[in-house]
Amino acid sequence: NKQVIPFHEGNASMKALLGGKGANLAEMTRAQLPVPPGFTITTEACLAFFKVGNRLSEELLEQIASALGQLEKQKGQKFGEENNPLLVSVRSGSVTSMPGMMDTILNLGLNDVTVQGLAKLTNNERFAYDCYRRLMQMFGNVVLGIESIHFEHLLHRLKEKEGVEQDQEVTADGWKQLIVDYKRCIQAKAGRDFPQHVYEQLRMAVEAVFKSWNNPRARIYRKINRIPDEQGTAVNVQSMVFGNRGDNCGTGVVFTRNPSTGKNEFFGEYLINAQGEDVVAGVRTPLAIAELKSAMPEIYDQLYQVSKQLEKHYHDMQDIEFTVEDNKLYILQIRGGKRNAQAALKIAVDLVQEGFLSKQEAVGRIEVSHLEQLLHRGIEENAVKDVLATGLPASPGAAVGQLVFNADTAAEWSRTGKVIILARPETTPEDIHGVIASEGILTSRGGMTSHAAVVARGMGKPCVCGCEDIRIIPDEKRMLVGNRVIEEGEWITLDGASGRVIIGAMPLQEARMTEELLTVLKWADEIRTLKVRANADNPHDASIARQMGAEGIGLCRTEHMFFSPNRLPVVQRMILADDTRERKEALGQLLPMQQSDFEGMFEVMDGLPVTIRLLDPPLHEFLPNLEELQRKYDRLTYEGGSDLEKAEVAQLLRKVQTLHETNPMLGWRGCRLGIVYPEIYDMQIEAIFRAASRCIDRGFRVVPEIMIPLVGHANELKLLRELVDFVADQVLGKDKLHDCPYKVGTMIEVPRAALTARQIAAYADFFSFGTNDLTQMTFGYSRDDAEGKFLSHYIDQKLLPHNPFQVLDAEGVGQLIDLAVHAGKRVKPSLKTGICGEHGGDKESIFFCHQTGLDYVSCSPYRIPLARIAAAQAFI
Ligand code: PEP
Ligand code: MG
């Protein structure tokens, strides 16, 4: 079958086979844009290559040779021929874009003979030998695995010898000398010669690009972006055009709209007399694209036309790599432009207004994981005193952290819990683990499209780029601004929105919803059927939740209301009480506190349902630590303390020992506590209805939903439901009952509850799936310990596709949910169902909830915008 496809035979719909880049090149070729001709080796060929142990089949090699033959005809050049040599680039091109993660080799086809041909042909010896040494450098690094630092050293030495600073100033003889040095270096480091045979170069390059699919940084990138390892990459072989042949040449990257703000303006950078890698790698700081207008007006106009044409064609903002060779424009590649969340929203809203997209399409395009960026923080402006320098505002948001100058240190320090700002002269894909570990990124070189900028934007991390006033010296673990020295470990703040680098840890300000976000959310609300509620435990969080668009509270964990210094001792007294009388006394103190909490919640949520979960304390969280207490007791015994003191500690110790459990998460939790000590739930229920009554009197509409945790048997719920109804009757009386349409329901978080949903539904008005516990108990993994222990190994070894505490395990836990929903609704069609575990804020899990027919998801307030959009996407 056909594993090599010339650009003019493909099209945009063949992305799975040709990769994103290949499909776009084909589509542009069809649209007759100025694309240098070439061909794509398919992802299928890549998978076949892996299957036979990383070997290119004879058949594939033949297909490549024949495609190359065609290309030679098209270009009127010959691969490996002295007089008019064809030169090609070899680039990876995966189905999902992975910027900078895999490898590229330019200028293939040069050797000791063809380089002379190129020199003659272009009448530019300096240029030809520069191309050749670049090939050796890239080939040596990517294909032969020699670290680039070795080549850089040799280059540096040469420049010193020639007394020049810039690469462009090196003479032809200099390059020739460098080629000799490079050959020696390759021989020494790789134990073989640089291949002179051009077909061998091509074969090895294709192999290397295929293999780069599995390099560590590509693997990490796929993992965090959830890109399947099974996709493989295509390889694009494209005839070369040169942006480095002189001053009527250049290269650059443009976005059809501003990728930071989304503004409809032409945005990008270019370099005169340079090859594409110079821009992307951020080695030289490029010029703003607006300057091209005066430097090369015709090229600028043509580029602008092409960009508008492409945007119209794809109905989306595009990222375009172009090269100008001898005053002629070529488009080397395009892709949907990476953008930050704010830009994505603005572009989507604008495209709807410009008539290119429907509202559904616009909502469908929002990358929900990026929305968190929007809820990014800013700096408290009046605290800013010492602005060290200002660079390019490459990725918005503010970050505070301790300075670190290399990626390994960043990763190490962050493992010990430190928050890090990674500062580098520039970043390369090799720094990816450091970028992941950091709060924010600072570079002294490179533009808005440099690696650091692109990667940070993708991850939603604040980034300041190209801050040239700062000299970053990683080897000395410090950076300099003028004669000011800033050492490793010092605290700094980055403002990715303005590009400022500020000394010290500035206080940060939470983000607000932008107009575009509100528009997209409104559209999402029109589309979705799944409701979105919030998990909130106090009136402040509840009011944030409302601002974020919550349609109710799905979970108020009442035990969280007790975690304050003035309440904890009362709660401890309640738990450790010797008898009911003592317990009731403590409860009597708690009642008004709880009542005022609930009043606050009801007022904020006026008219919307508020699900209040009765106490579910893992008891150990509320008790003094047993070991510490034991030590205290020993100390008093051996070192002598007063008898009274000893007696008190001894008594406390005895009680804590009695309550101590080996397996507290499977112990005396949830309704088990309420059943053994009914007075506790009694107090809470009373507080709820008293609060309801007060709020009704004040004119609020109150919709309480009382939720019983950790039910595993219908009898538990039956008993506690009777208690709720009884107290409601007592507190509200007949008249108020009418104004307070309360519900009683349960959490489904024990597998047995799911399995016996039919029986439980008889006593429940609603089910709320507590998927944290349900996951814990279905897998038998401790939710508190598993992640730091074996779970990461399981995920690395692909025994599990995701962390099941983050992404709902649809196959296992999901089956229990599905079963419970359907069994419950069969008994009681009016049964309301929702989810309130952490999964309620996760996109994939939200999709599952929609498909299973749940009525709502409930998640933390800041995730609500994300959940609203994901719920709409689930519907689309
Ligand atoms: C759950 O178990 O999913 C839940 C929401 O309850 P908690 O996390 O408080 O145990
Ligand atoms: Mg739970």
Automatic annotation (TrEMBL):
Instruction: Please name the top-level EC class of this enzyme.
Output: transferase
- The PEP-utilising enzyme mobile domain is annotated at 421-499
**According to the lineage, what is the superkingdom?**
Bacteria
- List its EC numbers: 2.7.9.1
Organism, scientific name: Paenibacillus sedimenti
Task: Give the Gene3D superfamilies listed for this entry.
Answer: 1.20.80.30, ATP-grasp fold, A domain, ATP-grasp fold, B domain, Phosphoenolpyruvate-binding domains, Phosphohistidine domain, Pyruvate Phosphate Dikinase, domain 2
Regarding protein family, the annotation reads: Belongs to the PEP-utilizing enzyme family.
Q: GO: which molecular function terms?
A: ATP binding; kinase activity; metal ion binding; pyruvate, phosphate dikinase activity
Q: Which PROSITE patterns match?
A: PEP_ENZYMES_2, PEP_ENZYMES_PHOS_SITE
Domain PEP-utilising enzyme C-terminal, which positions?
Answer: 515-874
Question: What protein is this chain from?
Answer: Pyruvate, phosphate dikinase
